[in-house]
Task: inverse folding
């Protein structure tokens, strides 16, 4: 793996000075390794640096483009998502080098923190313990994501020397997962409850965050459903210990209302942003161009749009659903309108006025061509734009200070429903706490959509609910991989709206021809650059 230029430079200096007798003399004009950790503010800054390395907005949004939820045609700017879904990638793809390097950068930074923070003698012991617990969470998060994508990976529970890093081998995925789960379990005791921290510390890792990530990790393994259900029940039933969580009253407000986005009882962990101080700007390439966007670099697929049910709870393919292909966006799950901008959409501007969005070619009477779908220009390649995460208080170029949700209580409910169903324990009481609660919050009122169905394909009902609830939050790719359906949903065309040749695919846009080889694509290749640095690393099958 690669190390930063700073760490390599420090190592070089140490080697050059190896003959000196008094290397433990601290410089008096600057911080040294001997003095840095003794300063409380340095410790806090080091922790916040680890938080900053955890994840970024680009990775958050464009991950959906590697699933059947979205398509991005822009290559490097979207993390090579189009190359991944086309099936044409190799181990030299920059996405893999960057992904691998970023997670190991975080792990190295966490290990340095854990191995040095006890040099501080002025912070209270309980504070040090909490800082360590947060750091162990971050290190576990990085290892989990690495093993999720690459399978067997090096497990680094301490900081390696450069020489050790050049020969470290991969550990079996099961061993890495066990390490992640045990680290999260150990961290819980020293982490605070959400309700025990001041507002100034919103965004810090809590007991609930460690539990929820533990549930996600075990859910993804597929054979730990009893443990998953038990963890979810802790979060749902022991709020005095872990914090009071509930679904926020408005689905759209969680993503579009700055006040609700920042402070609510649903967010368990989020990437923190501050208006005009620390912002993200991807929405500049997500919104319709007629409302000020630059271009479109991420379009929802027709497959995602089709997964939103009718208000009566039926799939649009059900003859009794009432779905009208010629008027496809009426009487649908309200989360469709909260998430995706379609032709004829009534866009609400920051001042409360509305603007009708024309996407079907030749329909805009004011700005001809402004929002048309386009396979080679600035318009959407699928005929869809995004509303979810639109910030009405954004600065120029849609620079937003909205937080990005990493773990929500809604995910805990969906995880619980999936685990209980897998165990054969889905019943009306579980349904009411999970799927019914989510649909009621979304705006469903028809008893046919809200009442426990008793029969039917409960597995796909839960999967569909998870898909629409969590759309554009970066979890769909994980889901289709762990359910082993990627070779079904990622083979063939990703489609867009019905604006194309009616003799081909009934007129639905063919946005991209996709290929998924189940014999190898369930794991990403170990980056070629890493194999050249470390001969003890081995490649995944098929690459």
Result:
């Amino acid at each position: 793996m690669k190390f930063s230029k700073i760490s390599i430079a420090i190592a070089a200096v140490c080697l050059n000075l190896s003959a000196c007798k008094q290397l433990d003399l601290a410089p008096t004009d600057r911080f040294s390794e001997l003095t840095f950790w003794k300063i409380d503010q340095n410790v806090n800054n080091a922790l916040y640096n680890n938080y900053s390395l955890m994840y970024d907005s680009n990775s958050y949004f464009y991950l959906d483009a590697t699933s059947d939820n979205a398509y991005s045609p822009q290559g490097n700017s979207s993390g090579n998502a189009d190359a991944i879904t086309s099936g044409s990638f190799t181990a030299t793809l920059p996405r893999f080098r960057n992904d691998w390097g970023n997670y190991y950068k975080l792990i190295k930074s966490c290990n340095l923190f854990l191995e040095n923070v006890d040099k501080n003698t002025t912070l209270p012991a309980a504070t040090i313990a909490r800082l360590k617990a947060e750091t162990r969470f971050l290190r576990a998060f990085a290892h989990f994501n690495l093993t999720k994508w690459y399978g067997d990976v090096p497990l680094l529970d301490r900081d390696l020397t450069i020489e050790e890093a050049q020969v470290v081998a991969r550990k079996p995925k099961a061993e890495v997962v066990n390490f992640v789960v045990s680290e999260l379990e150990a961290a819980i005791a020293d982490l605070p409850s959400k309700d025990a921290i001041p507002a100034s510390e919103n965004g810090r890792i809590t007991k609930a965050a460690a539990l929820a990530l533990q549930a996600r990790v075990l859910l993804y393994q597929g054979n730990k459903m009893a443990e998953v259900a038990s963890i979810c029940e802790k979060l749902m039933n022991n709020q005095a210990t872990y914090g009071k969580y509930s679904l926020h009253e408005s689905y759209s407000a969680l993503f579009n209302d700055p006040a609700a986005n920042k402070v609510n009882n649903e967010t368990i962990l989020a990437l923190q942003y501050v208006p005009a101080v620390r912002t993200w700007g991807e929405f500049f390439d997500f919104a319709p161009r007629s409302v000020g966007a630059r271009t479109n670099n991420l379009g929802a697929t027709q497959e995602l749009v089709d997964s939103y049910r009718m208000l009566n709870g039926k799939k649009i393919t059900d003859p009794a659903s009432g779905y009208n292909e010629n008027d496809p966006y009426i009487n649908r799950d309200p989360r469709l309108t909260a998430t995706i901008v379609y032709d004829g959409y009534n866009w609400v501007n920051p001042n409360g006025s509305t603007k009708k969005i024309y996407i079907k070619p030749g329909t805009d009477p004011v700005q001809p061509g402004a929002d048309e779908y386009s396979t080679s220009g600035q318009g959407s390649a699928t005929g869809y734009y995004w509303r979810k995460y639109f910030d009405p208080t954004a600065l120029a170029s849609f620079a937003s200070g909205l937080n990005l949700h990493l773990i929500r209580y809604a995910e805990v409910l969906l995880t619980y429903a999936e685990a209980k169903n897998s165990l054969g324990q889905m019943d009306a009481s579980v349904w009411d706490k999970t799927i019914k609660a989510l649909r009621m919050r979304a705006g469903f009122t028809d008893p046919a959509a809200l009442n426990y169905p008793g029969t039917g394909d409960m597995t796909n009902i839960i999967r569909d609910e998870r898909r629409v609830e969590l759309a554009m939050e970066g979890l769909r790719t994980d889901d289709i991989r762990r359910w082993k359906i990627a070779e079904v949903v990622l083979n063939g065309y990703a489609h867009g709206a019905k604006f194309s040749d009616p003799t081909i695919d009934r007129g639905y846009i063919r946005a991209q021809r996709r290929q998924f080889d189940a014999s190898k694509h369930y794991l990403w290749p170990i980056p070629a650059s890493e194999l050249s640095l470390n001969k003890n690393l081995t490649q995944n099958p098929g690459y």
About this structure: The chain has 23 helices and ten strands. Residues 308 and 468 are 6 Å apart (CA to CA). The beta strands are 70-71, 267-271, 299-300, 340-341, 345-348, 354-357, 385-386, 404-408, 492-495, 510-514.
